[in-house]
Design a protein that fits this description.
Blueprint: E1 43-49, E2 52-56, E3 60-63, E4 69-70, E5 75-78, E6 83-88, E7 92-96, E8 101-107, E9 116-129, E10 137-140, E11 145-148, E12 152-158, E13 161-168, E14 171-174, E15 179-182, E16 186-190, E17 200-201, H1 204-214
Parallel strand pairs: 9-10
Antiparallel strand pairs: 1-4, 1-6, 2-3, 2-5, 5-8, 6-7, 7-9, 8-9, 9-12, 10-11, 11-14, 12-13, 13-16, 14-15, 16-17
Length: 218
């Protein structure tokens, strides 16, 4: 996959795909301490509706509950009709919809920035920033890369194809054969082979579908 403008967008380093730093905050009588000291690369679950599981190499599998933290390379999987919300660095909240799989990559090293990285392998996730500033987030899917610094947007993966929608602000989307720049109300589809389609104004029916899948917390 070709990625330009290295000050904003970065390939996933090999080291980010190997090993696993898993943080478990036990939900007992208040905040618990992480098992691993990797807090700068962690997201913490704040809400669970339905059933979901968190796993990481060398750490096993855990039922997703509020207070559980995901360190580098930890993966969250949701079941049918389930949703999870988690908080991440730089005021970022991520809402994961049903039958989805997402992994934390942590901060990505770049020429001038360190965006927070996640990998959305399947399903749908919505991303919301509660403040401006920071280096933003970069999301990898099997067919595309999307990156923002502060906005509200969502991304869905089905059969390796990606769909990206901006609810507010600017989203940059990179595929194998081109790029797209989304503004509020715009969406784009990227095929499983990485072919970037035209940027279009999404109709209300498709916006409503994303909203239904993500629920009221997005």
């Amino acid at each position: 996959m070709r990625i330009s403008n290295r000050s904003l967008f970065h390939r996933w380093p090999v080291a980010a795909r190997l090993g696993a730093a898993f943080i478990l905050a036990v939900a007992t009588l208040g905040p618990a301490s992480p098992l691993r000291a990797d807090a700068d690369a962690a997201c913490f679950i704040t809400h669970v509706a339905g059933s979901a599981e968190v796993s990481a190499r060398g750490a096993g599998r855990f039922v997703a509950v509020p207070g559980l933290g995901l360190g580098r390379n930890a993966t969250l999987r949701t079941e049918e009709a389930s949703r999870v919300r988690m908080t991440c660095p730089d005021g970022l909240a991520v809402v994961i919809g049903p039958q989805s799989e997402i992994a934390v990559s942590g901060f990505l090293e770049g020429a001038t920035t360190r965006p927070f990285g996640v990998r959305l392998m399947n399903g749908i996730a919505g991303f919301l920033f509660d403040r401006t500033g920071g280096d933003g987030i970069q999301v990898n899917t099997p067919s595309a890369v999307a990156a923002v610094r502060s906005t509200q947007w969502a991304m869905r993966v089905e059969n390796r194809a990606s769909a990206v929608f901006s609810r507010d602000g600017t989203v940059f989307v990179f595929g194998e054969d081109g790029t797209a720049r989304l503004q509020a109300g715009d969406g784009v589809d990227v095929t499983a082979a990485g072919e970037v389609g035209p940027v279009v104004r999404w109709g209300q029916a498709r916006i409503d579908l994303f909203a239904d899948l993500l629920g009221p917390r997005w």
